From TrEMBL:
Group of enzyme by EC: transferase
Pathway: Carbohydrate degradation; glycolysis; D-glyceraldehyde 3-phosphate and glycerone phosphate from D-glucose: step 3/4
Positions that bind ADP: 24-28, 158, 189-191, 215, 217-219
Regulation: Allosterically activated by ADP and other diphosphonucleosides, and allosterically inhibited by phosphoenolpyruvate.
Keywords: Allosteric enzyme, ATP-binding, Cytoplasm, Glycolysis, Kinase, Magnesium, Metal-binding, Nucleotide-binding, Transferase
HAMAP family: Phosphofructokinase_I_B1
The protein's name in its UniProt record: ATP-dependent 6-phosphofructokinase
Chief localisation class: cytoplasm
């Protein structure tokens, strides 16, 4: 059993609903195991600029239901340099922090991996991002809540789209990962999803139109993953306006509304299980791993695997969406 007396916990990158549930679980599981906890504010910034606060069990009371993160978060450019990480390491030594739990996305876990390698520190990561772009876990913390937010918004858009018999392009988040668009489309009965994983394989919009996707439909909703790879919803709409002027086209960009809100039950449970598992992992001498859940079982995923680009898209989802949108 590892000799860990004090851990630091931080949230980094974009906030995600369920991060608070994860902070609570990490804190409570650590204290249960007689490990002291320090909350590090604003992601890696807090280590570099010394914003570190002692955490007790009641520091995390009544937060499981809150969106955002009580630790705040940041995208910290100073941490991208070896000098910045040296300062962070020195802060950990000064504070007596023996190990870190980092809650964040692929960027945050990349930073964790480098810090762990450079300074030989035990670090365990939790996948906290709405993008669901980390390998080795079925879901990331925040993804389910964001998906439900998308579903509520798209259902509302359907009402107006069908009243006006319009074609809507709805842009959702996800960076280079199409899960939010794909499952958002399945959950709302949307006609299609345009996702980054498929951009280089096919002209998704061209195929959609040549398959006559508007012939039998009164309204059409197409979810598009944001970003340069797909070009986003605006680009799609411009193209349709030029090539198919007969269609009445509108665009909705859902934006940061997707990141907020009270986490769903699924996210609260996922975050609670993963947070407790992070402490078990540290006690079990695990280091440089992300906690994942695969088929309802906790797994330890090496950082190198978790952050590998291009999480494979689930082909089954693509096929089902195609079949159901005739
Ligand atoms: N290569 C890297 N080296 C060191 N630190 C990094 C690296 N990449 C990212 N980080 C740190 O992690 C922070 C968050 O990364 P990023 O902005 O990619 O978000 P993320 O964790 O992927 O979350 P999300 O994608 O959900 O917003 C960065 O601001 C930086 O402090
Ligand atoms: O809030 P910011 O810094 O503009 O970042 C937006 C990005 O963060 C995410 O919400 C989470 O990674 C992405 O889906 C999106 O591209
Ligand atoms: Mg990311």
């Amino acid at each position: 059993m590892a000799n860990i007396k004090c851990i630091g916990v931080l949230t980094s990158g974009g906030d995600a609903p369920g991060m608070n549930a994860a902070i609570r679980a990490v804190t409570r599981a650590a204290i249960y195991n007689n490990i002291e906890v320090k909350g590090i504010m604003r992601g890696y910034r807090g280590l570099i600029f010394d914003e570190i606060v002692p955490f007790k069990t009641n520091s995390v009371s009544n937060i499981i239901q809150q969106g955002g993160t009580i630790l705040k978060t940041a995208r910290c450019k100073e941490f991208m340099t070896a000098e910045g990480r040296q300062v962070a390491f020195e802060a950990m030594q000064r504070e007596g922090i023996d190990a870190l739990v980092v809650i964040g996305g692929d960027g945050s876990l990349t930073g964790a991996r480098i810090l762990a390698q450079e300074h030989n520190i035990p670090i365990v990561g939790l996948p906290g991002t709405i993008d669901n772009d980390l390998n080795g876990t079925d879901m990331t913390i925040g993804y389910d809540t964001a998906l439900n937010t998308i579903m509520d918004a798209v259902d509302k858009i359907r009402d107006t789209a069908s009243s006006h018999e319009r074609l809507f392009f709805i842009e959702v988040m996800g960076r280079e990962c199409g899960y939010l668009a794909l499952n958002g489309a399945l959950a709302t009965g949307a006609e299609a999803a345009i996702i980054p994983e498929r951009v280089f394989e096919s002209d998704q919009l061209g195929e959609l139109i040549s398959n006559g996707f508007r012939k039998s439909k009164n309204s059409s909703l197409v979810l598009v993953t944001e970003g340069d790879i797909t070009g986003g919803a605006m680009t799609m709409a411009e193209r349709v306006k030029k090539e198919y002027p007969q269609y009445d086209v509108r665009v909705t960009i859902l934006g940061h509304v997707q990141r907020g809100g009270s986490p769903t039950a699924a996210d609260r449970i996922l975050a609670s299980r993963m947070g407790a598992a992070a402490i078990d992992a540290l006690l079990d001498d695990q280091r440089n791993v992300m906690i994942g859940i695969q088929n309802d079982k906790i797994v330890y995923v090496p950082f190198s695997k978790a952050i590998k680009k291009n999480k494979p898209v689930n082909e089954d989802l693509i096929n089902t969406l195609k079949v159901l949108s005739i």
